[in-house]
Amino acid sequence: MARARRFTAQDDALRFAMYQDLIGVRTYEDIHVAIESRIAQLCRADHLAVGFANLDGSVGLEWKTTTAMPLLKDYSEWAPRDFVFQSTVTQPNIVLNDTQMLRGLPLERTETYQRSRDARLRLEHVMAALLFEDQQGLKGGLAVYSESRPFSELEQSKLQALIPVIKAAVTSVQHQYAVRFERDLMKALSLELGAAMVLTAMGRELVRTEAATRRVSKWFAPSELGAGGVPEEWATRVKRLSSMDGPPEPEWTHSVKNGNGEQLFVTFTPSTVLYGGRLTWQLRIEERVVSVLQGWRESLTPKEREVAECLLKGLANKDIAGSVECSEQTVKKHVASIFRKVGVGSRAEFIALALS
Fold first, then answer.
1. Residue 16 CB neighbours (<10 A)
2. Backbone dihedral angles phi then psi of residue 172, each to the nearest 5 degrees
3. Which sequence spans correspond to the domains of the chain?
4. What's the pTM value of the predicted model, to 2 decimals?
5. What 3-state DSSP class applies to 57?
6. What mean pLDDT do residues 136-155 have?
7. What CATH number labels 9-177?
8. Which one of 2.60.40.10, 1.10.10.10, 3.30.540.10, 3.60.10.10 gives the CATH number of domain 181-354?
9. Nearest CA to 220 among 235, 228, 230?
10. What's the rounded Cα separation, in Å, for the pair 34 and 174?
11. Which has the closest alpha carbon to 52: 117, 113, 131?
C-alpha cells in the first residue's frame, strides 16, 4: 500500500467541498452527487461507481454511476467471479489497484474485462475498496476506472484518505432510514390498541410497543426467548407463515398460551410494510380471561379435553395427533365431536367462543 503523501491546495479545496456536501446527506444519491466529480478530479479517473447496501436489508448493492451502469446493472449475478470483488472482499476498507488485484493474471483473461468490452466500455485500469463496519457488515463499495493510463500511488493514497468520510456518510444515511422506518412502524402500531410487535419474515423483531414488552415478560421465561427477546415459538411461527405458498392456514394465524385462568391470545397478520423485499408480520397480543372452558370439560371425554386444549393452542391436526398420541384420523373424529357438543362449526368459532 502506498504511503500517504501531501495533498495540493487544489486537492484540499476539492476535499473540503466534498466534505461540506457530505454533511447532512439524506440519500445515497446525495452521496453520489457529492463525491463523483471530486474523486474523478482527485484521481484523474474516467469513470466512478459507488454501491450501497440496500436499505431494506435485501442482498446486493444499489449502484450509483453516471457512465458504468452497463457493466454493473446485473452485478450481483457475476460478482463472485469479478477479480475486483474477489480481492477487495479479503481486505475491507483498503483501496487496491488492478495490479494488486490481478497479481500477474492478464486483465484480458478476466470475465470482468470481457463484460466491460461487451458493455462498450474501455476500462483498462481500476482502483476499488469495499466498505465494511465492525458489527454492521458490508456498507458499500467504491470503484474508479481509467480507460488508458494506470493509477499512480499518489492517486491511490488520495482515494484511501477519503474512505473513512465516505463510509461515515453511508452510515448516516442508513441510520436516518432506520429511524424513519421505525417511526413508520410505530405509527402503524399506534393504530392498534394494546400490545403489538412487528417481526421480519425471519422472525427478528423490528419494533414493539411497551405493552408488548410487559406481556412477554409476564408470560415467558427468559429461556423461552430468542436473542432479540422474541419468544422462540412466535419467531418459529412467523418463519413458517412466511414460507407458505398462498394464504396461510387459519390455525397458523393464532397462538394461544394458557395460565392461571387467563390466556395469551396472539394474532399473526401480514403487514403492509416490506423489509428485505419480504412481508413483515404484525402480532397483536391480547390477554383474555377464560370464561366457559370449565363448562365444556363436563361434556367432553378426557381425550377430547386434550384435543380441545391443543385446538386452543392453534395446533394443526398432525401436531395434535403427536401430542395426544393417536392417529390424525382419530383427531379429526375428536374435533368433530367437540364442535358438535360445543355448538360451533369451525376452529375459528371454537376459539372465539372459548375466549368470549
1. 11
2. -65, -45
3. 9-177, 181-354
4. 0.57
5. coil
6. 92
7. 3.30.450.80
8. 1.10.10.10
9. 230
10. 17
11. 131
